[in-house]
Amino acid sequence: MDSSKSSDTSSKINELARRRGFFWQSYEIYGGVGGFVTYGPLGTRLKLNIEAKIRDIFIKKLGIFEIESSVISPGQVFEASGHVNHFKEFMVKCSNCGKGFRVDQIINEKLGISLLEIEKMDFAEIKKVFRKNIFDCPECNNALKEPTQFLTMFKTTIGPYSKAIGYGRPEAAQSIFVEFNRLYKMAREKLPFGVIQIGHALRNEISPRQGLIRLREFTIADLEFFFNPEEANCNFIDEVESEVLPILLAVNRKKGIEEISNFTVREALEKKIVCSEWQIFFMVMAMKLLLEIGIPIKNQRFIEKLPWEKAHYATQCFDQEVYVDRWGWIEVSGHAYRTDYDLRCHMDASGADFRIFKEFEKPVEEVNYLLKPKMSLIGPKFKEKAEEIIADLSIVPVKEVLESFEEKGYYFVKGKKITKNQVEITQRKKIIKGKRFIPHVVEPSFGCDRLFYVALEYALKSKKNRTVLSFPRNIAPIQLGIFPLVNKDGLNDKAKTLSTFLRSEGFLVEFDDAGSIGRRYARADEAGIPLCITVDYVTMDNDTVTIRDRDLWKQVRVSINDLSKLLVDYFKEKIEFEDFGDFIESK
Amino acid sequence: MDSSKSSDTSSKINELARRRGFFWQSYEIYGGVGGFVTYGPLGTRLKLNIEAKIRDIFIKKLGIFEIESSVISPGQVFEASGHVNHFKEFMVKCSNCGKGFRVDQIINEKLGISLLEIEKMDFAEIKKVFRKNIFDCPECNNALKEPTQFLTMFKTTIGPYSKAIGYGRPEAAQSIFVEFNRLYKMAREKLPFGVIQIGHALRNEISPRQGLIRLREFTIADLEFFFNPEEANCNFIDEVESEVLPILLAVNRKKGIEEISNFTVREALEKKIVCSEWQIFFMVMAMKLLLEIGIPIKNQRFIEKLPWEKAHYATQCFDQEVYVDRWGWIEVSGHAYRTDYDLRCHMDASGADFRIFKEFEKPVEEVNYLLKPKMSLIGPKFKEKAEEIIADLSIVPVKEVLESFEEKGYYFVKGKKITKNQVEITQRKKIIKGKRFIPHVVEPSFGCDRLFYVALEYALKSKKNRTVLSFPRNIAPIQLGIFPLVNKDGLNDKAKTLSTFLRSEGFLVEFDDAGSIGRRYARADEAGIPLCITVDYVTMDNDTVTIRDRDLWKQVRVSINDLSKLLVDYFKEKIEFEDFGDFIESK
Q: Which residues on adjacent β-strands are paired with residue A437?
């Protein structure tokens, strides 16, 4: 990675983001607080459009449910889920200035041990490293204290009772799990079904440094997909079986090999690279989502998580990563097979029953045998030992006794042989209609702020010394710029009327009449507006306008009558700019 | 208010909301926590649609900016804004069980004093009431303690430093104010402009009781509109001047009169009932918003807040109220004239400069006079007193001296007369190009959960013993139901293909093939689906389907080819159901 270039790109994004109102660090007037950002007007619109894409791809096709719950959750929820125990980071504080630092950052910076290696260390090993080395505070150069564990959830109190602990949710998944029974009813008591929640979540990071990549408050999209583990087939698998997934395998990662292997969905399932059909299906959908927000497949990969990297609830886990200039590969989504872990935890903690009754296709007959000692034979034969023998016979597994009769003709109790004729064997039949099980869960989970960041980085282009944000047309924050060529002779009014009309047709429109037309095009390019419509003197004659394409810098002239239909089709990706008509001479 | 009827309506809404997945109290498996709700699939969609309406009405027309910031805010923000000092409720705890109660609820329930009267009391008066009376705990009947003040913000710590206090924001407004300078730049340094934020907010209520009406976590839509108080005209005022606002005046409220007065916008401004044109404009828009989500004007009113009811930042404040069956009139939005209060607070606390420089139309010449004692005259005349006199002349206001010369011919200094000829007077001219001022703010602020509740209550109808949710068509959670008449002969596949097509056209579609067609219509009515499309045997012949209207229970038959266009126009409210074609015989 060329570090000079990388810092350029990232600085350029930050400068542009602040100036044009995509995002910036919040509360700057109070010195800023790490880990919090404010999305400005263009950023909020872009973020809403990316969230709408998630809804498009996941909700509409699959009939996934969406819910909205609270960020603050009662303590029990995250005690039961294991977060209160596991959601911790190793931290070390300075003995002098009191500032806290992540242990992995300190060890990495001071000893050069890779973050991957540090992630494997447990608390004892971490403490050993700190006992062997003396580390100075990066801020004030005084000695650092002993490492501790820091719970990275925001903690608060709900209502006036100091014992009613609440946490800011670090994920949106738990508020889906705790409502499972109600949601299952809404799915008309049928599996499989999925529930998504897109909302703010909180992680009280010790020292967040990477802007949008590591936030204390962020937007998460957690999709929990519930299915019967014995009927785990995905009914869309045929549609995606020849899609190719670029995967960095755990086995290679362990050897330090960064090589990506390409597998078709079918291959990955056959070779058990990915164990769940639903999981790999969502991985394909995630790949498509990223493609739609502008990230080419070649800049995407999935990495298989190593055992010590996996969250406490996951059996198999893949991270979807995107290559960015400054930080290399960064995670944008996680794909975890959570099994029945979460539902089971909440069942145990709350006493609720999340099991589902599955009726067998035909009822199964279960036969139970009962053993009854014949007193009239055992009593006289074993005398004073009879009572003990009878007591033992009442607790030994009947199956064991019957097998022993079959094999040897007798069964040993208290060192005595009991024969088949000394007991009475009766059958009891039971009709079993079905069984109860806890659904399994696969979870695709997206960090919306990271999706936002990669969309912005991949849109960023430079053309003739001008910054152009080439967003895919249907995530662009503003769809249309409307400009009167000049501010006189009625052109301005005509352009305003056109703006109002196109707004009422549902388009996101920006009217701009300030400065030369060239400067307005430049501003529009920088805001990523795909099409700019100019009202000129010809418009006043024949009701046609020019439309200019952001990426081609070419213009066509179309009739205002045709405009709405053309634009609808263009933004639905039914037609391309070239289909609008012949290019005209650009001014 | 008929209380038996009211409890019926409210119970009916709650029962329906839980069963069909509009909303329910969160975390039921852990016993539920007051003040937190989960919106289910239908509810989330309805809520998103209502929020989209707010965006439609406020953002699109006015070019209002939207931003998204964090729920957790550093302590300084709410110290500066006055919330840490003012955002408190009087609370009283039980000496035995420790449960906390709102003081106003206790006094109201035990002494029968109206909540309106209690709201006027300050802390001293509250304490007096508690000293005069002995109140028992409503839960365990033991004695209540002394009243205290409870800060109704959620408090937490940001990062590992225990001194870095953070609060859950009780409103979205402050994260707009603190970013004023950046937002003003995005408005190209022109007033007026507005910024909206729609997001979660938190109020740590002592004992929330009223379901969706009083939540600890809720969604707020705060719109802050910035303008120059000396150029306070609203450029849309002509468009709304004859709109009629139903207002309950403060002067009547003080007398206990509940009579609504109707004023046109023009009258209300002329009579100074509402002082700001922008404020009344937003009140009209709020009225239209409520109308569009299904609340007739006759069930809306604005109440003028009394001095002791107003928030600490507001000069003039109106609440928009809607009549609901259970609680009578409830607030759904607040309209506050916040003046420059908030910007000024944050300027004082942070040192940032939020003043705007306004250039005068033509520069103003300011003349300053300088006074210089003539030493050659004063020295000889006043001898040892001369030094004192000269020192005094250097600090007295020049204007005062000149006026005294004009009036009396002399000016007294240290008991001595100084005359005009003993001093030299020079002029210094200064050109003043403009002045600096802090913008004023009017704020419409909507409680989205309350909008949701009133939309649900007003949609709730009963027809032939069947529950129908008659949502206005463009907030309905699902737009179209698609049903195959039977599950055979290819009807099911045809209906599924149609569903896929209509989803790709952007409609919110529910496919349903379970149970009789009658039961499916009933389920659709209860979910508020405006139109249901049925694929029947005729469809297989001639590619037409029936469309059934939720409210009329009438059907038309249309060609699949015309469907998309008709439905687009219908949901854009360009055509009515009657325009689809002739009604056919209902099955």
A: A356
B72 and chain A in contact, CB less than 8 A: yes
Could you tell me if A199 and A315 lie in one domain? yes
**What pTM, to 2 d.p., does this model score?**
0.89
Residue by residue, pLDDT tens for chain A (587 residues) are 333 444 578 889 999 999 999 999 999 999 988 999 999 999 999 999 999 999 999 887 788 999 999 999 999 999 999 999 999 999 999 888 888 888 988 999 889 888 878 888 888 999 999 989 888 988 888 989 999 999 999 999 999 887 899 999 999 999 999 999 999 999 999 999 999 999 999 999 998 888 899 999 999 999 999 999 999 999 999 999 999 999 999 999 988 898 999 999 999 999 999 999 999 999 999 999 999 999 999 999 999 998 877 777 777 899 999 999 988 999 999 999 999 999 999 999 999 999 999 888 899 998 888 888 888 888 888 888 888 888 888 888 888 888 888 888 888 888 888 888 888 888 888 899 999 999 999 999 999 999 999 999 999 999 998 999 999 999 999 999 999 999 999 999 999 999 999 998 889 999 999 999 999 999 999 999 999 999 999 999 999 999 999 999 999 999 999 999 999 999 999 999 999 999 997 54
Which residues of chain B neighbour A166 with C-beta distances below 8 Å? 154
The strand pair at A316-324 and A328-339 is best described as: antiparallel
Could you give the CA distance from residue B412 to residue B400 in angstroms, rounded to a whole number?
11
- Please tell me whether residues B257 and B335 are part of one structural domain: yes
The full 3-state SS of B26-46, as one line of letters, equals: CCHHHCCCCCCEEECHHHHHH
Whether B159 and A71 lie within 8 Å, measured CB to CB: no
Q: A-contacting residues of B 10-39, CB under 8 Å?
A: 18-21, 24, 26-30, 33-39
Q: Which of A38, A44, A65 lies at the smallest CB-CB distance from B179?
A: A38
Q: Of A446, A464, A487, which closes a domain?
A: A446
Contact A196, A367 (CB under 8 A): no
Task: Assess whether the previous peptide bond of A192 is cis (omega < 30° from 0).
Answer: yes
Q: B105 CB near a chain A CB, below 8 Å? A: no
Does residue A452 lie in a domain region? no
On whether residue A353 sits in a domain, the answer given is no
For B206-210, B523-527, B580-584, which range has the lowest pLDDT when averaged over its residues? B206-210
- Residue A131 resides in a domain: yes
Q: Give the CATH number, domain containing residue A136.
A: 3.30.40.230
A492 CB-near residues (< 8 Å, 6+ apart): A484, A486, A513
**How many residues does the structure list for chain A?**
587
Domain count, chain B: 4
ipTM of the complex: 0.89
Collect all residues of chain B within an 8 Å Cβ-Cβ radius of residue A77. Answer: 27, 30
From chain A residues 265-304, the ones with a CB under 8 A of any chain B CB are none
- Are A166 and A307 part of one and the same domain? yes
Question: Of the candidates A472, A427, A426, A118, which has an alpha carbon nearest to the alpha carbon of residue A291?
Answer: A472
Q: What range does the domain containing B542 cover?
A: 478-580
The CA distance from A317 to A337, in Å, is 6
Number of C-beta neighbours around residue B207 at 10 A: 17
- Between CA B154 and CA A366 the distance in angstroms is 57
Structure tokens at A106: 């300190």
A130 and A103 co-located in one domain: yes
Subunit contact B159:A76, Cβ cutoff 8 A: no
**Domain end: B403, B422, B446, which one?**
B446
Helices and strands per DSSP (H, E), number in chain A: 23, 29
Phi-psi region of B383 (alpha: psi -120 to 50; beta: other; left: phi over 0): left
Q: Is A166 on the interface with B (CB under 8 A)?
A: yes
In the numeric block, the tokens 């139903």 are attached to: B246
Residue A6 CB partners (closer than 8 Å, separation 6+)? A325, A326
Instruction: Verify whether the Cβ–Cβ distance B181 to A217 is below 8 Å.
Output: no
